[in-house]
Amino acid sequence: MDWQTLIGQYVFPIACCVYLFYSQEKERERHKEESDKWIEALNNNTKVCEAIKERLLTYGTKD
User: Fold this and answer.
1) DSSP letter, residue 9
2) What whole-number distance in Å separates Cα of residue 4 and Cα of residue 23?
3) pTM of the full predicted structure?
4) How confident is the model at residue 61 (pLDDT cuts 50, 70, 90)?
5) How far is Cα 21 from Cα 5, in angstroms, rounded to an integer?
6) How far apart are CA 38 and CA 32, in angstroms?
7) Residue 21: CB partners within 8 Å, gap ≥ 6?
8) Euclidean distance between the first and final Cα of the chain, in Å?
9) What is the pLDDT of residues 15-37, one digit of tens each?
């Protein structure tokens, strides 16, 4: 078996698989960070909506 066959049939496909695995893991980490930011924003918006609701209820009862 010569070097060209060895590289073409074994080393290159293995290197591609390793790169694709690494790339997928990085993408998964970025997606997790992005999802965490969306969850935090949603929770903050929920708190604001609850505060507005309480103020409106309080305002409505002051007569």
Assistant:
1) I
2) 27
3) 0.64
4) confident
5) 24
6) 10
7) none
8) 93
9) 999 999 999 999 999 999 999 99
The Cα 44–Cα 51 span in angstroms is 11
pLDDT mean across residues, the chain: 92
* Pair of tokens at residue 18: 């390793």
3-state secondary structure 13-25: HHHHHHHHHHHHH
Domain boundaries, the chain: 37-63
Residues contacting residue 38 through CB under 8 Å, at least 6 positions apart: none
